[in-house]
Amino acid sequence: MQIDYNKLASEPFVEFNPEHAEYMHKQFIDICRQLGFTPRVVETFNVYEDMLYAVEAGIGLAILPYKSKGYIQNPLVYTLLDISNVSIDLCLAWDKEIKNPAVPLFLKSFWNYMKENSQLFL
Asked: Is-contact 59 43, C-beta < 8 A?
């Protein structure tokens, strides 16, 4: 399915409440800007499921991670955006005094993933 991104400017959008998900809001706005339009947000939501139900009810479109497709059963249509030149900031943070053995295992796995997929991390 080919999307005319210029037409998206006139479509209603729903998104996470910027007061509760500031980073997600920033990413949403940045992605829209990089695709060449400013979203017309008609409603915001604090709960992920509520936003998906709003899309299902026809209140608006949403830009979400594609993996949302399998999150809950719904009749929504998902499509990938052409975001080949869109970037998203990524950060890992942890308390260096933490004693949880899962932290170093996660970090090792993540670093290995970054090495194996270095084209994804600029």
From this structure: yes
CA–CA gap between residue 96 and residue 87 (Å, rounded): 28
Burial class (CB in 10 A: 0-12, 13-18, 19+), 31: middle
> How far is residue 65's CA from residue 62's CA, in Å, rounded to a whole number?
10
pTM of the shown model: 0.68
Q: How confident is the model at residue 99 (pLDDT cuts 50, 70, 90)?
A: confident
Q: What would the two tokens of residue 59 be?
A: 């209140």
**Cα distance between residue 103 and residue 55, in whole Å:** 36
Among candidate residues 44, 6, 48, the one with its CA nearest the CA of residue 25:
44
Which residue is associated with the tokens 């339009």?
37
